[in-house]
Amino acid sequence: MSKAGAFDLASGVGGKIDKTEVLSAVEKYEKYHVCYGGEEEERKANYTDMVNKYYDLVTSFYEFGWGESFHFAPRWKGESLRESIKRHEHFLALQLGLKSGQKVLDVGCGIGGPLREIAQFSSTSVTGLNNNEYQITRGKELNRFARVDKTCNFVKADFMKMPFPDNSFDAVYAIEATCHAPDAYGCYKEIYRVLKPGQCFAAYEWCMTDAFDPNNQEHQKIKAEIEIGDGLPDIRSTRKCLEALKQAGFEVIWEKDLAADSPLPWYLPLDTSHFSLSSFRLTSVGRFVTRNMVKALEFVGLAPKGSQRVQDFLEKAAEGLVAGGRKEIFTPMYFFLARKPQHG
Asked: Looking at the predicted structure, is the pLDDT value of residue 184 above 90?
């Protein structure tokens, strides 16, 4: 059961970081990013520390606002955010052709919302790979609650250096996760190694689209806001992802930016001009309430110092995501389905 209350949010801020060290962790995290003078190469060189700090700091906020699945989805008119997220996960499972009893790997699994949904939908055994101890601890609690702890598990490891033998899995997927990799080719090559020959890898990637102009200052500002607000060393183009897949040895079956055909904008839950009771906490009013609640909880000592700063950079990320979506220079759902050749 997802943690939903204000006190759960307050107690979770910082994850495994000592509560007295949260403000210091926020400051160190911020310094990695362009807005604070950080460099892309430094973010790539220290991606493990940067991404771990990010998820320790933000996971309780994510769970408070989004539930157990921290990702966007194409959305039909009349469909709730929760329904669209489930459908997005089911679509991935169907594209992979998952069958009962198969061993599946979720690369960068968060607290395991998609892992549990896909395991139950397809009757498969899913292993979640994650390098953040706090998220794994939380994911194990939720697996027990959902009664999938006997068939699904978590492994703490870096997806650039996976602790699995070659040809271990019947399928691999990643949902808005491998964007944290400092090098797409290196990450995809590891996925290729652990996937059985003839089997498939599917993903939703965060990417800059062909409409992004690296010489446009406004475009660069939007990109930097998304990077600091979402723990990213860089945001690759869709073309770079495709090139890295092929370079890693995959045969690309099909690929498409699914945002292009979404009847409702994917960024609608974060758009301050939109109001929804079903996703109230993500609306302008909901975020105002959360911001003031966090401020009050930090003031009285129930939330650690630095909690408000985390809320601030998440707000900045939301602004960047909405701006990137409106200008169509960014997508969180560049989808591809790729196969490891039978002789691989």
From this structure: yes
